[in-house]
């Protein structure tokens, strides 16, 4: 058990003091694992603490409104995680008497919980001898065993899982799994890993064969799409405005934004004005573009290029807006969950 012994000894000396590591309770462990999916620890930690402050138990999370959950999640991205979190909290509270399933297989039945997350919770909370395989583990094992198969394809991932089981300390899987993940995050980093002081150096294939910088192999599959967003910010003399809730399964589902016209290609001004008149068949006193340069917002699979137009009108009446829209005073904009793109605009131009 050379591998496990070395990384657990390294871990006891170098591990970060993180709150979800100081408990065997499934709820905070589950919460942290969902939040840290595609999110750095330093970014996710404040959100974790904020959620525990508002929802100390899974029952508290279940009782909250989706709007409150999304508002607390605002800025963390990948909002389907928040919606799944909320749905799962309700399911556990209403159907499982507030008790989390205690095996990997049963945890897999929860919404938003996949192979990695179920293994992590089963291991950390219930000490089940199941390996965790995340991006850090992919990197450590690819380098240690010299695996040059793409880790984001089935053959490569299957081999990684085989090796993860092979090196797993089945007597203390929780410690082992925490150690290998932390080792990948801090020691066996993507760029400039600390190979010269690595305790696995003598048996690491990548180090011995000079392949460290080339592993792991990952094939890029995501095609980035560019979308042009033109937001219309209605403001009346009483500083009231309209926001609308995004529906469907696209980005930012159930978050609020100003009424918007979306284009797949950069629109001409006449096209934007045509959409504006179509959305708002009301008299507009004046129109002014708020941002001098387009606002660029990058997501994992989208490049968003946004412009904001301030539309002054005489008054906002109930018949001005639709069912998915909400009348708010500008001072109330910070009370609803919005995408970061919107939050930055509101803070800079409206508050």
TrEMBL record:
Molecular function GO terms recorded: 4 iron, 4 sulfur cluster binding; 8-oxo-7,8-dihydroguanine DNA N-glycosylase activity; adenine/guanine mispair binding; metal ion binding; oxidized purine DNA binding; purine-specific mismatch base pair DNA N-glycosylase activity
Transmembrane domains' residue ranges: none
Cofactor(s) in the UniProt record: [4Fe-4S] cluster
Alphabetized UniProt keyword annotations: 4Fe-4S, DNA damage, DNA repair, Glycosidase, Hydrolase, Iron, Iron-sulfur, Metal-binding
Pfam families: HhH-GPD, NUDIX_4
CDD domains: ENDO3c, NUDIX_DNA_Glycosylase_C-MutY
E.C. number(s) listed in UniProt: 3.2.2.31
Free-text cofactor note: Binds 1 [4Fe-4S] cluster.
Gene3D superfamilies according to UniProt: Helix-hairpin-Helix base-excision DNA repair enzymes (C-terminal) (1.10.1670.10), Hypothetical protein, domain 2 (1.10.340.30), Nucleoside Triphosphate Pyrophosphohydrolase (3.90.79.10)
Gene Ontology biological process terms in this record: base-excision repair; mismatch repair
Enzyme class: hydrolase
HhH-GPD domain span: 35-186
Catalysed reaction, written as an equation: Hydrolyzes free adenine bases from 7,8-dihydro-8-oxoguanine:adenine mismatched double-stranded DNA, leaving an apurinic site
Family named by the database record: Belongs to the Nth/MutY family.
Biological role stated in the UniProt entry: Adenine glycosylase active on G-A mispairs. MutY also corrects error-prone DNA synthesis past GO lesions which are due to the oxidatively damaged form of guanine: 7,8-dihydro-8-oxoguanine (8-oxo-dGTP).
NCBIfam families assigned: mutY
Stated name of the protein: Adenine DNA glycosylase
